[in-house]
């Protein structure tokens, strides 16, 4: 008989993507939390430059953009608006929710990413919402799945971790002491490998909250968010359920044998390479071009938010070249 207890992976999937799931709500993710996309149009402009650089590397003026976990299409539309003249873009926004009204008609709205395209696959805060199981070391140090009761978020320990999950845990996030918790990132590794494999040629990039082996948080990162505030994670569809991403494990899973090595860096560095910096404009500009100075000052403030230490600038970027 069904007693209502679920693993966190199953419960999170239903809470986020089921018929009444959080990501199907009409206000969309932007109604609950602020991402780099919402912080400044500078982010979309930087992605547009990445798209143009990818096209140049492929030697073409026709390029695909795949926006994975597109929300309501804000990034896709922003990139199209900032795309250099002469670059012909086929844009795909991949999302479970229905297509929003008023979205640029050039955007193809789809539930799954296209396969076999050449271009830029860009996943901003997607992997953290690929549901994963939570595990905890019991008093004897045995790693067990954490079960949750969706209506109220109550937890209890279930069966010992085994099989591929146990192998992933041993390699990427070993539990040291009773009470330690982890999130098994194997579903994200598989999702990222599939994303990289969907490209015929180009570049795949994931941007997310991240940690690496050797610096994993001992009690995990499971969290809920609603209306701009962190809340208790209850998988009832009322809030976002998220955990940080083991991007190093994803990188290993998505790297083709004998192919280009993946690159891991922080957003501050990645955006800096793309010309996004938070330095103040020269004060002399205020006297020669006051309006230009105010625009530059505003852009500098937005850039500072995107690259801030302890904030968005600490996000991890995983880049994989394909073909």
Compact description:
The chain has ten helices and 17 strands. It is α/β, with parallel strands linked by helices.
What does this structure look like?
The chain contains ten helices and 17 strands. Helix 4 links the parallel strand 2 and strand 3. The strands form four sheets. It has a seven-stranded mixed sheet with strand order 4-3-2-5-10-17-16, with helices on both faces. The chain is α/β, with parallel strands linked by helices and 323 residues long. The mean pLDDT is 91.
Strand and helix map with partners:
Elements (H helix, E strand, L loop, with lengths): L5 E2 H10 L18 H4 L1 H18 L3 E7 L5 H9 L5 E7 L12 E4 L6 E8 L8 E5 L5 E7 L4 E7 L2 H10 L8 E4 L1 H13 E10 L1 E2 L11 E4 L2 E3 L8 E3 L2 E2 H8 L8 E4 H7 L10 H5 L1 H17 L9 E7 L1
Parallel strand pairs: 2-3, 2-5, 3-4, 5-10, 11-15
Antiparallel strand pairs: 1-7, 6-7, 6-9, 7-8, 10-17, 12-13, 12-14, 16-17
Helix pairs in contact: 3-4, 6-7
Descriptive keywords:
single chain, 323 residues, alpha/beta, 5-stranded antiparallel beta sheet
Q: Per the principal axes of the C-alpha atoms, what is the gross shape? A: globular
Number of helices: 10
Major sheet size, sense and barrel closure: 7 strands, mixed
Q: Which range does the strand content fall in?
A: 25-35%
Structural class given helices, strands, pairing?
alpha/beta
Task: State the strand order across the main sheet.
Answer: 4-3-2-5-10-17-16
- What is the number of beta strands? 17
Low-confidence stretches: none
H and E order: EHHHEHEEEEEEHEHEEEEEEHEHHHE
Report how far the terminal alpha carbons are from each other.
50 Å
Helix coverage percent? 25-40%
- Nearest-integer average pLDDT: 91
What is the radius of gyration computed over CA atoms, rounded to a whole number of angstroms?
21 Å
């Amino acid at each position: 008989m069904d007693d209502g207890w679920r693993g966190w992976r199953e419960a999170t999937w239903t809470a986020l993507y089921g018929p009444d799931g959080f990501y199907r709500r009409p206000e969309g993710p932007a109604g609950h939390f602020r991402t780099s996309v919402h912080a400044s149009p500078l982010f979309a402009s930087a992605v547009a430059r990445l798209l143009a650089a990818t096209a140049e590397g492929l030697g073409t003026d026709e390029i695909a953009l795949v926006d994975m976990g597109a929300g309501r299409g804000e990034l896709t539309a922003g990139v199209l608006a900032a795309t250099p003249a002469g670059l012909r873009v086929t844009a795909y926004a991949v999302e479970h929710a229905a297509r929003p009204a008023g979205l640029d008609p050039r955007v193809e709205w789809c539930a799954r990413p296209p396969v076999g395209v050449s271009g830029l696959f860009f996943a901003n805060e997607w992997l953290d919402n690929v549901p994963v199981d939570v595990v905890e070391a019991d008093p004897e140090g045995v790693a067990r799945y954490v079960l949750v009761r969706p209506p109220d978020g109550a937890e209890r320990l279930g069966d010992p971790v085994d099989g591929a999950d146990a192998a992933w845990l041993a390699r990427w996030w070993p539990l040291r002491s009773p009470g330690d918790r982890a999130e098994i990132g194997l579903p994200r590794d598989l999702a990222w490998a599939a994303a990289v494999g969907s490209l015929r040629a180009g570049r795949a990039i994931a941007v997310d909250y991240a940690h690496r082996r050797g610096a994993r948080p001992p009690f995990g990162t499971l969290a809920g968010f609603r209306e701009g505030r962190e809340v208790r994670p209850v998988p009832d569809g009322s809030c976002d359920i998220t955990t940080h991403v083991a991007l190093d494990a994803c990188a290993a899973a998505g790297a083709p044998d004998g192919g280009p090595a993946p690159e891991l860096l922080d957003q501050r560095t990645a955006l800096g390479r793309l010309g996004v910096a938070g330095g103040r404009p020269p004060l002399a500009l205020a006297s020669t071009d006051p309006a230009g100075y105010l625009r530059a000052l505003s852009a500098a403030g937005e850039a500072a938010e995107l690259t801030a230490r302890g904030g968005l600038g600490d996000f991890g970027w995983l880049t994989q070249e394909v073909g």
